[in-house]
Every structure is written in C-alpha cells, then in structure tokens.
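Quick board copy: two proteins, each given as sequence then tokens.
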Amino acid sequence: MTLALIDYGAGNLRSVENALRAAGGRDIEVTADPDYVRKAERIVLPGVGAFAACMGALSAIPGMVEALNQRVINEGAPFLGVCVGMQLMADAGHEFGTTPGLGWIGGTVAKLEPNDPNARVPHMGWNDVTPVEPHPLIAPGEAYFLHSFGFRVADPKMLAATTQHGGTVTAAVARDNLIGAQFHPEKSQAYGLAFLSRFLDWRP
C-alpha cells in the first residue's frame, strides 16, 4: 500500500509520518511530487498554521491541487486531512480575509467564538471526540486539539464528530472517501494510533 504524505511546508510531517508507521503504515512517501500523488493508494494532508498560508503553499506546488482533485475526487483514493489539512477541504477560510479552499466538503472555516469566557482560544489540549454520524473511522474517546479556527459544515450529514469548547465545535468531517480530523492523531496517543490504523485499513 503506497501512501502519499503531502509535503507543502505546512505540517508536522515527521510526527505524522512516525505516527502512521506506528499505526502499521508501510511505503509512506513524504512528497511534493504530483505524479507520485496520482499513483498513491492513500493520501494524507497535514497542516499547521493559517488557512490562507497553507492553501497558498499547497497551490504554489505546480500541479498539486490538480493531482489531488484527480486522485481523490475523480478516482476515489482514501484521503485524510489533519487539522488545517482538514480545514482546506472547505469552500473557504475566513482568516486574514477570505481564501478559497479545495471545496470538497461544503462549509467555511471561521474563528472559534466560545460562549464561555473560560474557554480560551486557541482550543488546546485533550478533549472528547463525540461521533455524530456513524463512521467506520470515528470512535468516541479523547484526542488532542490545537486550533483557533473551526470548520462550519454546511451539510450536517458530513459532520462526523464534535467536541465541546464553549459550545459545539467540529472534530471530524467525512463523506465518501474523505475523512478530516480537527484533532491531531499524531499527538493523541492510543486514540490517535487506533484512528490512523483504521484509516490504513479503510476501504470506502
């Protein structure tokens, strides 16, 4: 099984790679090569930082967005987006203006606005993951979060899991062969490794 871990200068690449290997992954290629992405059996898009900067960095790799659309959307390769990598699946991000996303899952990414003054932003630390729609990859448990912006999903059927941080916050999104996690599986110990293991075995 070949797995492309996308290197666009915007993710915890080595931590994610190590976690994938610990979860049983083999033939993992950290890559910025669109041709490799077009042939990969699975694709993981990590991401840390601002939506606009991450989308700009991804788009700056010639042919990468086109390769992702071909392999993931047209051909149905299993895809995992992590943190900002999940957020880039949205229609747009509202951070330092409005930046178009990949448009794979309807919705927008906006700054967290907790209705509890004790819930600070960024949302950082361990928190519950509560499944909303049944999904083979999502289990109840605790995972590690670190983010200031949240994915506001347009279609509730694509909201796979939530967490609580001064209100309900998207923890995971999903449709078809796409899964996105706002939490960091690479920092979520046993819960995260089990999640990644399920992704590696997933046959959507």
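And the next:
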Amino acid sequence: MAGNASLNAAGRAKKDEFYTQLTDIEKELRHYREHFAGKTVLCNCDDPFESDFFKYFVLSFNQLGLKKLMATCYTGSPIAFSIFDILDDNLEDDTTLRTPYKAVVTSVRDATGDGSVTMDDVAELFRSHENELTELEGDGDFRSRECLDLMDEADIVVTNPPFSLFREYVATLMGHGKKFIIIGNVNCITYKEIFPLLMHNEMWIGPSIHSGDRAFNVPDDYPLDAAGCGIDENGRRYIRVKGVRWFTNLDIKKRHEEMILVQRYDPERYPRYVNYDAIEVSKTADIPCDYAGNMGVPITFLDKYDPEQFEILGKSSDLGMSMAEIATPGSYQAGGMRFYLNESYKGYKYHRLYERIVIRNLHPEEPRS
C-alpha cells in the first residue's frame, strides 16, 4: 500500500499526535483486567516510547499475564534514535530518526523503584534476546500490510487512533474481527459508520470518562496557542480536549448496571416532537420509569446505557420527518434532519434540537392511576 499522505503530512500528523496520559489509561483499563491473561496486545497508533499505553502494559505485563506486547509508530522518533544508540546499533546516518519501527515484548522483569518506565528501562527490555526492536519496511500506517499482519496476530488492540481517521480505524478493527479499547471524540457517536455499531451492541462506551475534558501530551513542536494548553512539571507539552470517550467491544460489569429511574411520565413535562412520534427527554436523569413508548435522549445517554434495560431504535438525523412536509420555508432551520418541538409562538426555528438517540424502555413500570 502506498504511504498515507494524511498521516505523514506534517500539519495533519501533528494535530493527530496526541498521547493519552497514564492516569487516564489506568482508570479505564482496570475494568478489563480479566480479558488480558494469556493475550497478545497491540498498540499500533502511538510511538511505543512516547506512548503511555506501551508504558502501562510494560509495567503491568506480568500482573496481567500477557503473552506478548507489540507496538508500532508511523513516524520516526528522536526517542527511538536514542534507544538504538543506547543499544549500540551501527548508525551510519540519521535515518532511524525518520524510520518507523515496531517493538515486540514477550518478557519483562518485574518493575522496581517508583514504578515508572525510563529510557534505560526500555533499552534494557531490548537487550534481552526474547524482545525485539526493529525497523518497519513501510511507513507504519495502520492500514499497511505489515501492520495489518500484526493486527491479525493480536488478540486485543489498545491505543489512541488519529481522531481524523477514527471512522476508518474502527472499520479496520471490525473488518479484522478485533477486540479493542480505543479513545475518541464523543461526536463519533453520531457518525453514520459508528452509530450502527453502538445501536446493535457491537461497540459501546467505556466506563471511566463521562464528562469534562482530558489532557493529552503532544510533541515538543506542537503550538500551544489555545486555551487549556500548557507545560507540565516534567516539561511535557499538553493540550486539553473536550468530549472524549473510550470505545470498546470488550464486555465489562459496568455495562450491565441498570440505570435508576425516579421520574414519572407527565405529558406537560415531556413534549412530543412535531416530526417524529416520540417524547423529548432533555436529560438522561429525567427518563421516566413508566413510559413504554419511544423517547428522544441526548447522545450522552450512551454513558449509562444498559442493553438489558433499553433498546436503541435510531437517531434523529435518520428518523425525523422532513420539516418541509410540515412547515413553511423559512420557519425552521437548515442544516440537516433533526427533531423539532412545537413552540409556535416563537416558530420552529428556535426549537430545532441537537442530535437525539431514540430509545425504548424494555421493562417500564406500570403507570400510576
């Protein structure tokens, strides 16, 4: 396969080169420990020696009972250069700075000291004949043949894929039948390629991030020209990104915790849409316990979704009736299909809602008489 221009182009690649912080990785992955014993894990979208995913699995290799850890990068790394240098490889020029490489780990000595992974620790890993650090033949694109071969070898893929290629990355995982734990933007929920997977329980939201923003480390030359950027106490640059979520297809106990519903249906409180037969529930916490019909809820409902409690029927951009069949031109907003509420004293234009997920309670309580 030819080199991936969108990954290798400097500006685009830098925007996608976010490194998930170790504390966020630890908070999420603690829910999946039972899945890793005897398994091969692949981290295929982060520099193994920049990525805290790699560090997490090195530190936890024996505790999790991993069979093998593999990691690849798609651009060269000065850190990789330093490791090759430490290992006394014969470097005739600086090609290693630009050459993607893979790391394969099958043996890790139990960590000592403060539990961190230093450059010397990484170098020590690859002094062992049981572990391997080699250059890739191609550009390290996750869609290249050699990287797909590594994916086929892996049992579980865990990484932070490029946000701009999230659709294609998930399609690749699904096409190869992989189990995965990845991180992405919450708006991915609405993508036409992603939503059906969530709707049909082929993928779901991880348990550790349900609100707020998260800090991601970025390369040293990444511009810090936006709010929330900074440099931490270790001198690493970071940015804060709003609306991120973990996505996975590994089953966990948290996914089957029933949502406690305390509200009851009142037609005055729950208006109906004018272009779809369902009621509006503007907050997940306000889902009525005794309503058996269709309900529209925010996309963040998926943070609490229990597939034994609710059925997902679709989303507003797919289910809604065109407002052109209901209202006069100019009385509603352009910009794609959405649900509208009937507030005629102001006109429909002011009551176009954000994307809604349509759900049905599988076990509603009996309404009060």
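Board note added afterward: The chain has two domains: 5-254, 257-369.
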